[in-house]
């Protein structure tokens, strides 16, 4: 069964910036780990698009969210990638989650939200503590709008406190991070395959 993944990089850097994105590297590592499980993926940088503030699926003229929304919902696995800033998920990631609030009112005849049957992962980088806190906040929001969270699906790398080494600067992926990525990829692909084969029944009326 061919599965697809769509990763949204919520870095504070646009792709045209000279500084490379550690979030991009972690997302690329994750998508590479999904390939052996029959998953083909794509990474898109949020700041390359004009995501308007709001809680609707379409905020009108100039809003790029509708096309990103279509990509998210077309994929079997959605990956939210983000850096930690001041111990919090990036403001870009928060805006993405705010736009998904619209899913709550977009249910089908069985009460299922648009993300029902879709798997969600969260990949986090940072040079400060807070990965578990950020995972908790993001997974709660993603679950609230209908995504399914696999076991062991939060991957992260955080550098030494007060340090200046970024994930993108590492000569190789740390062993424990690589092992976590492999487990996440395996669990996510397995769950996505099950849900694609048999969707949630929703509320039986």
Automatic annotation (TrEMBL):
Domain NADPH-dependent FMN reductase-like residues, every copy = 16-160
Q: Name one Pfam family in it.
A: FMN_red
GO terms (molecular function) for this protein are:
oxidoreductase activity
Sorted alphabetically, which SUPFAM superfamilies does this protein's record hold?
Answer: Flavoproteins (SSF52218)
In terms of InterPro entries, this protein maps to: Flavoprotein-like_sf, FMN_Rdtase-like_dom
Under which name does UniProt file this protein? Multimeric flavodoxin WrbA
Q: What species is given as this protein's source?
A: Rhizobium loti
